[in-house]
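Sequence design from tokenized structure. All designs in this work follow the same two-part layout: the structure record, then the generated sequence. An example of the structure record is given first.
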């Protein structure tokens, strides 16, 4: 059969050399790019160095290139390797461990001689007791342990693929870290700003399920970092500069604090595990769609307090409750806050420049559609509290903001297909706003900046420009000839 060309990324424990090597190798038309020289790191459980090596290699590699991690044979390493972008794993560890009388389990390895029972339900462990397995002839015992090790390894891979589909991979990574102190140290590497910045670029805007707290690592996730960063860059502060700081309560927070909010001339800020949460943003992902314990761990609580202090200083806010004489238009304020947080600061002033009509759900009373001067601009999604951009809203953004704001630029040859509502394939993408993230709303435009349609991205800029196949944008509406 045909052979595949593999170009191995080397560089020892030096991140700069790994990245440079990966950049040079990406120029070659190879089939797969293994990360080499890491087996000793895994054998000695130096997972912090391993994580650095994977990150350094991935930063230099073309995102479309399949990445193989040499020697990753223990399931405890699988989730973090996959989360960092490794596509293939291989190892003879299942056989080596078996020869040493060690059984692989999701949480680690156990010596057969130290087990009174087999804590597993694979065919091997279901067919033998620990005593029976110990009493087998050596060759047969090693063979059966090796088969058990393979069952566990393949089971963990299924678990990872399921977590990818359910968008719960980070939860699985953190759960594994709780099983092994060395792996816990490995996740600490991802808490650095540079690591968060890189990981955030590939993190979807929202997910179908709730963000689940698993421990101190949760508040360091790329999604949390994005929320805190955008809050400092995009939030529309009330003109009075006064804020009332209140403790976390039942979600959404407005159930408890809305009536008080109506009567004050300023903002209500909830002190949450994410840091400060303005009441107007209490329904967006991941604020409302998250599950945390009533009592946070000390580190998460400290980081939350630091984030709140940074927020207050950034906007020069004053703590105090000032009563207002008139009733405020909370729906309008909420829409403005979410628009700016989602699309960029100042976007609400452009989109809502006219007579605004807000339509709500008859069943829940929540905002569903936003019209301006009779034109349908936005629809609010119930599952993540964020907006879906309609074609009329896209027209306003297109007229008021220059390239590359919220745009995905496509080749001229696919114009007629986009106008008819067909999806955008990555190979036809010419460029893209670098701020766009997976699942962001976007304008689809031609190379001459003609508006062709509006849709939702599946990839970020780096991925769109590197992949030669697959869908980059799911087109929602094409701008058909009027």
């Amino acid at each position: 059969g045909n052979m595949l060309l593999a170009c191995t990324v080397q560089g020892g424990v030096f991140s700069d050399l790994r990245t440079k090597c990966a950049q040079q190798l990406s120029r070659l038309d190879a089939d797969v790019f293994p990360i080499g020289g890491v087996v000793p790191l895994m054998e000695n459980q130096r997972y912090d160095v391993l994580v650095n090596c994977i990150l350094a290699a991935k930063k230099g590699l073309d995102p479309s290139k399949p990445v193989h991690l040499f020697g990753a044979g223990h399931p405890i390493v699988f989730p973090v390797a996959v989360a960092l972008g490794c596509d293939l794993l291989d190892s003879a560890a299942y056989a080596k461990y078996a020869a040493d009388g060690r059984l692989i389990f999701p949480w680690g390895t156990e010596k057969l001689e130290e087990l009174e029972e087999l804590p597993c339900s694979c065919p091997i462990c279901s067919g033998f007791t620990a005593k029976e397995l110990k009493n087998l002839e050596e060759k047969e015992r090693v063979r059966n342990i090796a088969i058990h090790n393979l069952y566990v390894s393949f089971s963990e891979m299924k678990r990872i693929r399921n977590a990818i589909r359910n968008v719960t991979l980070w939860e699985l990574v953190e759960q594994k870290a709780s099983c092994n102190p060395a792996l816990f140290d490995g996740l600490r590497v991802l808490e650095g700003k540079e690591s968060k910045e890189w990981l955030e670029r590939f993190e979807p805007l929202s997910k179908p399920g709730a963000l689940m707290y698993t421990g101190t690592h949760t508040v360091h996730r790329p999604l949390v970092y994005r929320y805190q960063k955008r809050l400092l860059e995009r939030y529309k502060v009330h003109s009075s500069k006064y804020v009332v700081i209140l403790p976390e309560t039942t979600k959404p927070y407005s159930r408890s604090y809305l009536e008080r909010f109506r009567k004050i001339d300023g903002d209500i800020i909830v002190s949450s595990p994410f840091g400060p949460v303005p009441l107007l943003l209490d329904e967006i992902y991941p604020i409302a769609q998250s599950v945390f314990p009533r009592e946070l761990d000390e580190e998460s609580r400290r980081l939350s307090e630091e984030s709140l202090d940074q927020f207050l200083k950034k906007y020069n806010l004053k703590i105090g409750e000032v009563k207002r004489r008139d009733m405020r238009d909370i729906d309008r304020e909420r829409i403005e806050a979410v628009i700016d947080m989602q699309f960029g600061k100042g976007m609400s002033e452009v989109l809502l420049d006219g007579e605004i009509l807000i339509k709500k759900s008859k069943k829940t009373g929540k905002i569903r559609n936003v019209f301006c001067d009779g034109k349908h601009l936005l629809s609010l999604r119930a599952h993540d509290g964020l907006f879906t951009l309609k074609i009329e809203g896209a027209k306003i953004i297109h007229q008021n903001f220059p390239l590359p704001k919220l745009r995905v630029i496509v080749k001229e040859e696919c114009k007629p297909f986009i106008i008819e509502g067909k999806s955008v394939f990555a190979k036809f993408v010419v460029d893209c706003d670098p701020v766009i993230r997976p699942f962001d709303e976007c304008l689809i435009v031609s190379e001459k900046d003609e508006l062709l349609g509006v849709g939702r991205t599946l990839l970020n800029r780096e991925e769109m420009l590197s992949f030669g196949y697959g869908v980059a944008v799911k087109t929602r509406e094409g701008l058909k000839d009027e």
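Residues 290 and 445 are 35 Å apart (CA to CA). We note this feature because it recurs in several other targets discussed in the main text.
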